[in-house]
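COURSE: Structural Biology Practicum
ASSIGNMENT: Worksheet 4, Part C
STUDENT ID: 0417
INSTRUCTIONS: Below are two proteins. For each, the amino acid sequence is given first, followed by its structure token string. Answer the questions at the end about the second protein only.

PROTEIN I
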Amino acid sequence: MKPSEIHRGSIISLHRVGRTNAQRARQLHICKQTVSRWLQRHKDTRNLTDKPRTGRPPCTTSEQDQQIRIAVEKNPLTTSLRVIEHQNLWKPHLTEANIEKRLEYALEFCEKPAIFWENVVFLDEKTFYSTNRKATKVWRKNGTRYDGQHVVSDGRSGRIGAALFGWVYASGVGELTDIGRGRFTGVKYVKLLEDVFLPSVRLLNPYPSQFFLLQDNSPIHNAEVVKNWFKAHPEINVLPLPPRSPDLNQFEHVWAAMEKQASDPLPLGSLPNRNAVIQKALAPWEHQRGRDAGQALCLKLTELMPRRLNSVIEAGGAYTKY
């Protein structure tokens, strides 16, 4: 943590009365390296103010900074993601080019009738874990490591992950399958499309011949080997989402519903392994298959696509509430 101007002045004052670096660090609750750095800065420049900086401007306002400080003081064990979500602080930065592409996409598809979106298959990938808790980070000041509010009582280790590939459509969930170990590549994606996706989607009555497929703008989805595979299957009309458009990807809501059901850690006493993680993720997916609740969720999300697109238009290509 960068010391305030008051702390910097205190470093110099304590130096003048003969305190050691270790004593100054303990008294001010900062590390010795910070004390040494500001002493050297004062010696070289006689100045304790911050140097001018270049680069990207701050992404938060002073009011938001204050909200963040209050949030972590109330709950030092919170995560940065939760702070961001609760304070509504973060979405991927949109460039002018991103905004333009989002707006073009929305204008192109906003007039499509609901029946059009009922003929669209949505694809996505997600990694599930053996526990929903990573190594816990603590927001604290230097010198307060062992304060009671900063100690986690039940640490966990051995977190195991498994990446899964799935697809949904207006009538419900399709297939969910293991991507496999190692890095996900375009070659792996083509194999999933060929061996899992295409055979299973062809079994559905709504898609006997041509159909539409919507996927996000992942670099893997745009790999040359993937483009060539789609060229060899002209019955599939690809609708790639514009860059940085999670608010136009209805699959995010499906994953969220699954993750909520699969978020509990594996039972204590079991030995977590990759297969157990896969089975844990498959359980809520299979629970939705053929059930009214699963069909209603997918149909609702499909019907919302025109509304999402119109929201992008109303926002001038910027982010929406979705």
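PROTEIN II
(use this one for the questions)
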Amino acid sequence: MSEFPDQQGQELQRLEAMKGYTEDIPIPSVIDEKIWNGIKAGRQRKRRRVMTRMVSYTACLLILISVASVRFSPEVAAYVGEKIPGLRSLVELIHYDKGLELALDNDYMQPVGLFEEHDGMKVTIDGLIADDSRIIVFYTLKNVDGQRSIVNLHEASLTNSKNMSSSYGFSANNEDWENIQGTIDFYPNEEGNIPDTLNLKLEFNLETETASKNTKWKFAIPVDKARFEGLKEIYDINQTVTVEGQEITFGKMTVYPTRIGIEVAYDPANTKKLFYFDDLRLEDEEGEEFGTITNGVSGSTISENSQVLYFQSNYFRQPKHLYLRASSIRALDKDKLEVKVDLEHKKLISRPDGLLILKDIRAGDKEDQDKLVFELKNEDPLDQDRMYSLFNMKYKDDSSQSFDMLWTGSTGDEYQFYIEKNNYQSPLTFTIEDYPARIHGDINLRIK
């Protein structure tokens, strides 16, 4: 089994080089057409840019989903409404995360109130929640002049902290928008390496009937680091479980106010590649569950066989007993991870099973692109309305030369992958990153 580092500093040095990812989750059927349009637009961001933020396109989209289905406890909403006027509706964005709700309920929000107005818009930085593991910035975008336009958050970065990755995204496809509210997540690559001031740079893209332009915004956001310094708890789980012959070791668990990180290692001798846990969660003595993060970064890769998984935080709950539980894991035999595509005959040479079908290879939306269209047939109730990332964003041709996917999209059970036009040596080989195949077994570990 992979060994975990004994010291937090060692772990975080390894995390600095990590690739982040997010887990695909079922999407509520109540999302209306406008939100779906936003999802489709958001899914078509270039992967290269997204990967540098340690988050896949799915992370950006889940923020849209939360907007469509949020509810918020009256107690928390009332509290925040009194502390930070005008922010009550904004904080509803985080209802999907119990840990952030608890943080708000325990006076953990730092009000900001900075704003700028130009180009017919007003951008306000309303507040933030932060600890040594994560920063969540809350903002509001107001259409001041009422101009009809489609607006997208094109970039969000910190100019004075290059060692932080970020997760964000929204798309307002309703041209008559008035107010847009959202969040931006930042993740420090070294614990506690957070500046006293966040020099935030934002870039919004506005498209009207006659023109398209990018507007830039800068804010110097003060951070009250005394509010969260030293707020963490560490538990050594160090237990190994076996599920259908596959060994999994749960190592150290670190509890922060904004999220919980649990180290997980997979035995290199396992015959299957384990993708994602379907229902991994923390559960206290009263049966209350704290599931994995479903917005932003839900995990970070340490090595080929080890990672950190992130959970909603129960830091402010302080349970008497705590258990780690799961019953199914998406996994696939390691010898079935490659999908080979014969470009000339437009057919699959290899695939894991009959669920995956190549529907077409045709010209993309631009002259220098081709589009591969796949269908993933799947009737498992666990996958209802689930969108899969399916393939890794790197692929290779028969000469073993590696290439980067341009971008991807999906509609229902159809998946589109856009690649550069090239004189490839056929076949192309794609590596499966997630797939509707599973192993089952009860995981029930007592942590405290």
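ANSWER KEY EXCERPT:
Q1: The chain is about 15% helix and 45% strand.
Q2: The two ends are 24 Å apart (CA to CA).
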